[in-house]
Design a protein that fits this description.
Layout: H1 4-12, H2 26-53, H3 72-93, H4 96-129, H5 136-142, H6 155-171, H7 177-181, H8 194-208
Helix pairs in contact: 2-3, 2-4, 3-4, 6-8
Length: 219
Amino acid sequence: MLHGFRRFWAETDRSKNLAPPACPNAEERAAKIQARDLAVGFINNLLSKLSGLQGNRTAFGPRRVPGEPVDLIYWKAQWDKARTQAQAALARCEAADLQHQVESLDVQWAALVEQETKAAPEVSSGENQNNSGPAPEEIERSKGPGRPSGSGSYERLDFPLVREMRQVLLKHPHLSVTAVANRFVERAAGGGTPESKAKRLTQRYSAQFPEAAGRNQLK
């Protein structure tokens, strides 16, 4: 805060500090603060994934349609990855309160996996008991004209994502429709694989904006 000769004189006076002294263990404390911020981010990621797969509305997590089964193979890999990252950050920041949150989420995740695992055999069992059902040709005859039931169940949910994809493509014309669709797969409804969701969003976008269909060949 001093200028000119006063600053020069102050610098020669070693009995006074020109700035506050460094905090003890400053680097270690800063590293723990940064690790805690990372841990909070990964925990929020876990919470968003879990909430979406439970059927709740989330801003960034998956959007599940009621009755749609969860792809446990894909989502378990995603869960384990985010949890490993959270645990690594927690080991550096040593935050007991955040560790309790992770353990609570683990319990809820285990309950979801158990519920989905139990639901799968019930469907399979019901199908095996009904092997003597109508022949395929009878099923075809019983279907009415028009699109199959449920084929448009995601259309209303996909519409906001398609509009956001449009904004991205207008700002970045060098991108392909598929490349942009891959950015939105985690927010797309359903429990399918990322590839199937990206394909669905790409087709939805091309149907709404036919002039952009050729851009799907660009890098």
